[in-house]
Automatic annotation (TrEMBL):
Coiled coil: none annotated. This is Rieske (2Fe-2S) protein. SUPFAM superfamilies: ISP domain. It comes from the Bacteria. The keyword Iron-sulfur applies. InterPro entries: Rieske_2Fe-2S, Rieske_2Fe-2S_sf. It comes from Pedobacter alpinus. Residues 4-98 form the Rieske domain. The keyword Iron applies. Keywords: 2Fe-2S, Iron, Iron-sulfur, Metal-binding.
Length: 108
């Protein structure tokens, strides 16, 4: 089950990749020419901060060992065999709405 949380675009930096915090969760927010993507911040390979990486041909590239993760679905590039958690983002004018998986313990 997803919890949809909003963040004002006015609170964002005008950069391609930035670290954001929403509902106490840190995410990597990527702005492309077409849309926004939200991913986990830690690289699945060895935990590097992906907000320090860059985008290349539809992939988020890790700044440490340059593993690549598809922006659309988090799938690692061919041969990596891993994936990066991604979160759905809706662009609602002045706000972005990001879907975060609800932790089971929040139901109690
Ligand atoms: S820590 Fe990201 S590729 Fe190694």
């Amino acid at each position: 089950m997803l919890e949809w949380l909003s963040i004002a675009k006015g609170d964002l930096l005008d950069v391609e990749i930035q670290l954001i915090e929403i509902a106490s969760k840190k995410l990597c927010l990527i702005k492309t020419d077409d849309c926004y993507y939200a991913t986990a911040t830690k690289c699945p390979h060895a935990g590097a901060d992906l907000s320090k990486g860059w985008c290349e041909k539809g992939y988020l590239v890790c700044p440490i060992h340059r593993f690549q993760y598809r922006l659309e679905n988090g799938r690692g590039a061919e041969g990596q065999g891993d994936y990066l958690p991604v979160y759905p983002v809706k662009d609602e004018g002045d706000f972005l709405i990001i879907g975060i998986k609800k932790s089971w313990f929040k139901f109690w």
